[in-house]
Design a protein that fits this description.
By secondary structure, the chain is an alpha+beta fold. 15% of the residues lie in helices and 28% in strands. It has a domain of 154 residues: Pnp Oxidase, Chain A. A five-stranded antiparallel β-sheet has the order 1-6-7-10-11, with no helix packed on it. The protein has a four-stranded antiparallel β-sheet with strand order 2-5-9-8. β6 and β7 form a beta hairpin.
Length: 228
């Protein structure tokens, strides 16, 4: 939720307009207007319920290998050689041999706030069904999601673009009669993407980007200490 806030959270995620198929836009715009909601565009309504975003991150950057060796005795002049004893091998950590880009978890998690009547949940569920009923070669599929990074004065100074995202999963609806009062919970939608681009936005250049892919393509030049 990026409006009606007294502070700036430092990020903004807006699902693109083509994320929703035309059938969903038509259906839910009618529903929103009938309910006299102050936001009547379905994609704006959906973006307004975004609460939390998780993106990037990596793991398995180290490779562990045990080494067989003998123990080193304590340096004591009274110690006799017979007291030396073998020890278990030390464990050494090495850098993983695979490409560093391959270690990045290409997952985008977005937490949405439940709305009255679960309108945004049903909108996402129906949109998922429509999207996955289409041919994979359809030119009506959305092709990216942007995560904007905002500075202290509210200006966008960097952008993370996630290429070719697909919906991988969504939390189940959780109904509970044991709750004494109604609660506004959240649900998570998980996206998987194929690639990402990190862009710095400056006054001199609208977008100076470092394009990331599995070949570690950095504008045609690599630092001297990068080995492929």
């Amino acid at each position: 939720m990026h409006t009606l806030q007294s502070r700036r959270d430092g990020f903004r995620v807006l699902l693109p307009d083509d994320f929703l198929v035309d059938e969903i836009k038509e259906k839910y715009s009618t529903i929103l207007m009938k309910n006299k909601h102050y936001i009547y565009r379905p994609i704006d309504f959906l973006n307004e319920t975004i609460q939390k975003v998780q993106v990037l991150g990596f793991n398995n950057g180290a490779y562990e290998q045990p080494q067989q060796t003998s123990g080193i005795p304590i340096r004591n002049p009274k110690r006799i050689m017979q007291n030396e004893f073998p020890m278990g091998g030390a464990t050494y950590q090495y850098r993983n041999a695979v490409s560093p880009i391959a270690l990045i978890d290409k997952t985008l998690n977005i937490d949405f706030r439940h709305t009255l009547g679960y309108v945004n949940y049903m909108m996402l569920l129906e949109n998922f069904i429509y999207l996955y009923s289409r041919d994979t070669r359809s030119n009506k599929m959305f092709d990216h999601i942007d995560v904007d990074i905002i500075n202290q004065v509210g200006e966008i100074y960097a952008k993370i673009r996630l290429q070719d995202p697909v919906i991988n999963g969504m939390d189940m609806l959780d109904f509970d009669y044991t709750q004494p009062v109604a609660q506004s919970g959240t649900f998570k939608v998980e996206f998987k993407y194929s690639n990402f681009d990190y862009q710095f936005i400056t006054e001199e250049t609208q977008s100076s980007s470092l394009f990331i892919n599995d070949n570690v393509d950095m504008g045609g030049e690599l630092p001297e200490d990068v080995y492929l």
